[in-house]
Each structure stands twice: as structure tokens, then as C-alpha cells.
Write a structure and sequence with these properties.
The protein is α+β, with helices and mostly antiparallel strands. It is built from three helices and eight strands, in the order ββαβββββαβα. The longest helix is centred in the last third of the chain and has 27 residues. The protein is globular and about 50 Å long.
Amino acid sequence: MSYKGKFKPSFPEKYVGDPTNIIYRSLWELKFLKYCDTNENILEYASEELAIPYRSPIDGRIHKYFPDAYIKVKEPDGSIKKYLIEIKPYKQTMPPPKPKRQTKGYIYEAYEYAKNQSKWEAAREYCKDQGWTFRVITEKELYGK
């Protein structure tokens, strides 16, 4: 089930972008936004405010990828680090298991996996150029599962 809505931050001064127009597309994204808003070690954050070009392996064309979040964090050692974050189900971070016969569902999952890998590689390159880190966060990190 998909949950979407607008997030109203308690600390809008921490948000980079328009704090009156923060959209979440899943309960996992909402949980992460709440965490960013209230965690004192997150100095600033944004949601889908940055566009990174990537080449789709499906059609070979350039598309725009909007990572779920940007965060600026005060680390435990006192250093400041910046991250781009993608929030995905763990299942979507692994190649889909190949079935005995190719179903429409498998083909869709394989396309999505290939597309995500291209997006994430573009994000890693972008972060490398900026001195940032790219991370994919799943329910395992969000909920300790």
C-alpha cells in the first residue's frame, strides 16, 4: 500500500527548499523526514530538491533522478558530512530472482532494478564530485528488521 502526503516540519528553518511543500511518497519517507526534522545532529535536509542526470539502460536516453533526501549531519566525532539518501524496500536493492518463465512481473522488476542501478551510479558519481556520500536506506535501517 502506498501512502502519500505533505509533511509539515516542526523546525522549518532546517529544511533546504520550500518547507511548505515537502511531499512524501511512502510511510518510510515520512518516518525519515520526521527523523531529519527532530534529530539535532541533522543540521539541514531536503526532500527531492536535487536533480541528477542519468542514462537509462532501458531507452538509452538521459533522464533526471531526484534522490529522496539530502542531509547535512554532525557526526559523532564532530565532523560535518553531507549525504544523498534513497529510501527503497530491501527487495528492490537486489536483482529479482529469475523465474522458470519470464512473467510481466519479472520483466518489470528487472527493468526497475536496472534503472535504479543506473540512477544510483549517477548519484555516487555526483556525490564523489561533491565530497558527499550516497546511501540507499531500506526498512532494515529504518526499522531494524
